[in-house]
Specification:
The structure is a single chain. The chain is 53% helix and 12% strand. It has eleven helices and five strands, in the order βαβαβαβαβααααααα. The longest helix has 15 residues. The two termini are 27 Å apart. The protein has two domains: 118 residues, Response regulator (Rossmann fold); 79 residues, Orthogonal Bundle (Arc Repressor Mutant, subunit A), CATH 1.10.10.
Length: 216
Amino acid sequence: MPIRILIVDDHAVVRQGLKMFLATDKDLQVIGEASNGKEAIARTAELSPDVVLMDLLMPVMDGITAIGQMRKQYPDTEIIALTSVLEDASVTGAVRAGAIGYLLKDTEADELIRSIKAAAAGQVQLSPKAAERLMREIRTPENPEKLTEREIDVLRLLAAGKANKEIALQLIIGETTVKTHVSNIMMKLGVSSRTQAALYAVKVGLVPKDVFDELG
């Protein structure tokens, strides 16, 4: 089954351009478009995409607000912020809201396709530049609920950029079980995205800080 994608951007020419080059990959299928955050939420409810490419600066409802609402309502849909701005407030706002990735619109097509596939697999991948900003701005949760040994194992692998299937194979557990562990980890840490959970793992020393250099 191809990865089902929803494109959200207030510029029709951007949506059309994305649609055209994503169509060149047989593993991807653009199933819909939206021109603002409010419309994106409605389209997600209607279409159940695997991955949403979300612009941040839009009328009616901005991307960060939409990401926050969608993560609560549709936790199985992963969201990549795709924007023209690289400001600390935008990067941290999008990740706090629940985005699994943050890309600029000048990203090469191959890199965008790779990031979409990684997001669909539940794979956290941060460029070193974005990771540096996030590490500086995002604080670790105060008094988080204690994780079990198995949850720590899953978190360590998640932060190291492993996809759900890779984590399942390494720990000899089912992929559904991995998803359950990840949900429990995020709930215990009080975070809304795998990216935030990965940053927590780095900050408390579960994985080395230079792991993001390897991923980027």
